[in-house]
Amino acid sequence: MISTYRQRLDPRRSVLYLTAGLLATWAFAGALGLITGALVLDPEAQDRQPWQSPILAGVSLALVVGLHRTNLTTLKRER
């Protein structure tokens, strides 16, 4: 017999996935801004970047934050 039961998504998980998706979007936007130079930082923030390189900072932001949050949002589709 084929079951037509569909599991409902918990509202807390929906908020988690929505928040993770928004964070991933903004992380990729920030990374693009850093890489292209459209995002100008103050000198103190520039000194804290790895090797004072906005390109490396943008790539790191995309990899560490963006991909991690994108991975979390894709878990929703697998369940």
From TrEMBL:
| The keyword Transmembrane appears for this protein | yes
User: What parts of the sequence cross the membrane?
Assistant: 15-39, 51-70
Which UniProt keywords are present, listed alphabetically? Membrane, Transmembrane, Transmembrane helix
Source taxon at top rank: Bacteria
Keyword Transmembrane in the entry? The reply is yes
Protein name per UniProt: Uncharacterized protein
Q: What is the lineage of its organism?
A: Bacteria, Bacillati, Actinomycetota, Actinomycetes, Mycobacteriales
